[in-house]
Amino acid sequence: MNKIIIIVTLIIVGIIGLMIWGKSAQNTVEADTGAISNLEFSEKLYDFGTISMKNGLVTKNFTVTNNTDNDIVIPSLVTSCMCTKAYFIKPDGSTKGPFGMPSMGFVPPLNETIKVGESRVVRAVYDPNAHGPAGVGPIDRFLILTDTAGGKVQLEIKAMVTP
């Protein structure tokens, strides 16, 4: 009887621990202020069209430009799903990332500055195999950049996934 009580207690403690861990992972993203970022993008939506799971990863580069009078600091870059990774390409060609979905584990801070008049590339990499056979059909995923003023930009990728 004591073994059963100990096992049940351990299970309950484990579940509570997972709930606390999941909640803290969600809190790594800044609060949504509703503000719109002053960053400009060449495009905010890209549709891959029909893609096949058998062909693997697909990639899209978005160009972001700071056309304001002030440098813009971007502390955070996250994605809306575990199947999508984001990368930040620096002027020297080096890459920071991958950045992923906050509730799926630790997402490192971006902490990059885009100086006045400069541009950067934000790369979206989508894995059509991430959800297995259940992942067939239309997808709509987001990359979210947050600046220090609380402004947010959502970059969107779409596709029709086939086997």
UniProtKB/TrEMBL annotation:
Domain of life, source organism: Bacteria
Pfam families with a match to the protein in the record: DUF1573 (PF07610)
Organism lineage string: Bacteria, Candidatus Zambryskiibacteriota
Protein name: DUF1573 domain-containing protein
Transmembrane segments: 5-22
Keyword Transmembrane helix belongs to the record: yes
InterPro entries, per the entry: DUF1573, Ig-like_fold
Keywords tagged on the record: Membrane, Transmembrane, Transmembrane helix
Keyword Membrane: yes
